[in-house]
Design a protein that fits this description.
Shape: globular
Number of domains: 2
Length: 338
């Protein structure tokens, strides 16, 4: 089985700090490599893999603003499709654009849809619905206008997340600083319960940060620590009393929610999108509707077993489970294509 994995090029694969799609691609690539699969990763030239790396993009365009994203995206995608006949299957993690190349090869193309940035991209997915294959990352994130071969939940390298039995007395928000992620709501929750809140993540909306976040940063109760390395992320997640996921949109998956659970940290999440597929209410956290109910849930968190939080992740969201699920999909597609 010869598999080509097409990663995004905004960030390195795996990312140094932020880069959730690239992180997932890396875990799949390395998991396949360990199972003896012939896998080639198409990513930026500075990417790291035990498999084969093929690159035309020297660096991530988010780290080098001299690179024009559209130019290098075209070169990256075309480079892979020009080599398509050398593979049994192409696994696309680059959103909708590679689909426009898919009818130019007989090699089957599987696309993991990491979420829909806008309904405006659906026409591309609909055009290639009958000739390619789609995987959703949660049942909640499926479009009724598309067909899917499977849902495959993201997995994490759980051994790299240290379990912490005894937490410290702070709440943690880790994610994009954007209205969708509910940073302002997380601040409201912390202020109402009178607990320290640490905010971490890339600022995706500068205006939102300046208007809804920065005025509340006091260096004492509400602190913003910026983007974090994997090592600091692990430490912050493990020591948190609770992870706050006060989202304002239908979350396609929620890697940080799973990572928190791997450290034993319960999650208080707004009940939107995929959250009911990740959070077992009352077992590894609480599903809530608003700020007020989140405040109530924090008062009940001592009933949650931190061991149970990690056990749920180990059972449902491990790298091993994700790779096995994708291998089953690969075999199904390759068999159909023969």
């Amino acid at each position: 089985m010869r598999i080509a994995l097409l990663s995004p090029i905004a960030w390195r694969t795996p990312p140094r700090n932020y880069g959730p799609w690239e992180r997932v691609v890396s875990l799949i690539t390395e998991g396949l490599q360990k199972k003896g699969i012939d896998v080639t990763l198409f990513a930026t030239a500075d990417s790291l893999t035990e498999g084969k790396l093929h690159a035309v993009v020297p660096r991530p365009y988010e780290e080098d603003k001299l690179l024009d994203p559209k130019v290098w995206e075209c070169l990256h995608i075309s480079e892979m499709f020009e080599r398509a006949k050398g593979f049994d299957l192409i696994h696309n993690h680059f959103d909708f654009l590679p689909l426009t190349y898919s009818r130019l090869t007989r090699t089957p193309v599987l696309t993991t849809i990491h979420g829909f940035s806008s309904p405006k991209i659906l026409p591309v997915y609909k055009k290639y619905n009958d000739t390619t294959f789609y995987v959703s990352i949660s049942n909640a994130d499926r479009s009724p206008e598309l067909d899917y071969i499977a849902t495959v939940y993201h997995g994490i390298d759980i051994e790299n997340f240290a379990f912490q039995e005894t937490p410290e007395d702070y709440l943690l928000f880790l994610g994009r600083i954007h209205h969708d992620k509910g940073v302002s709501e997380a601040i409201q929750i912390a202020r109402k319960v009178g607990m320290k809140l640490i905010l971490a993540g890339i600022i995706q909306d500068e205006a939102y940060f300046k208007e809804r976040v920065e005025p509340f940063l006091d260096g004492s109760q509400i602190n913003y620590v910026g983007t974090v390395t994997p090592e600091l992320r692990n430490e912050l997640l493990g020591k948190a009393f609770a992870f706050i996921h006060s989202i304002n949109f239908n979350e396609p998956f929620g890697l940080s929610v799973v990572e928190a659970g791997a450290c034993g940290t319960p999650v208080v999440a707004f009940n939107k999108g995929s959250m009911p597929e990740i959070i077992v209410d009352g077992e590894n956290g609480f599903l809530v509707d608003d700020v007020s109910s989140a405040v109530e849930a924090i008062g009940q968190l001592k009933t949650i077993s931190r061991y149970k939080c990690r056990a749920i992740v180990a059972e449902k969201f491990s790298q091993e489970q994700m790779v096995e699920n994708y291998l089953a999909v690969y075999r199904q597609i390759i068999e159909k294509n023969n």
